[in-house]
Write a structure and sequence with these properties.
This protein is 0% helix and 43% strand. By secondary structure, the chain is mostly beta strands. Keywords: Stress response.
Length: 132
């Protein structure tokens, strides 16, 4: 994985847009990143997050993965709690070589897969000049 293709910016604590007085703790989901000649694939582990609780966005060349995991239902008196709930946040700076209009994502069994195809090389072309 080259730094030119994808630079990782982990954020474990961040502020919501428009919120200036309150900071929340975010979990950084574990990711694997794979690269081929044609694409970069990001696989993020987001167990317990539903598609409704997941927000994937691209703004100013930054791919942001945000999710919210609700606590599981309690069946009786809680004795031990290790299942962490709350917000996920992970950001990646996307290089210019990524075709930002054709990014695809899927969520299956708590695993988010984001496919970032690389843009092909610019093809030579004739440019028509309009007169008038």
């Amino acid at each position: 994985m080259t730094e030119q293709e994808l630079k990782i910016q982990e954020k474990k604590a961040a502020q919501h847009d428009g919120e200036t007085t309150k900071s929340e703790t975010y979990f950084a989901p574990h990711v694997d990143i794979f690269e081929t000649d044609k694409e970069v694939t990001v696989i993020a582990d987001v167990p317990g997050v539903t598609s409704e609780g997941l927000d994937l966005s691209l703004e100013d060349n930054v791919l942001t993965i945000q999710g919210h995991r609700l606590p599981p239902p309690h069946h009786g008196r809680l004795i031990l709690e290790e299942y962490e709930c709350g917000h996920y946040l992970r950001r990646f700076t996307v290089a210019e070589t990524i075709d930002q209009n054709n990014i695809e994502a899927s969520l299956v069994d708590g695993v988010l897969r984001v496919r970032l195809p690389k843009a092909g090389p610019a093809q030579p072309r004739k440019i028509e000049v309009n007169i008038g």
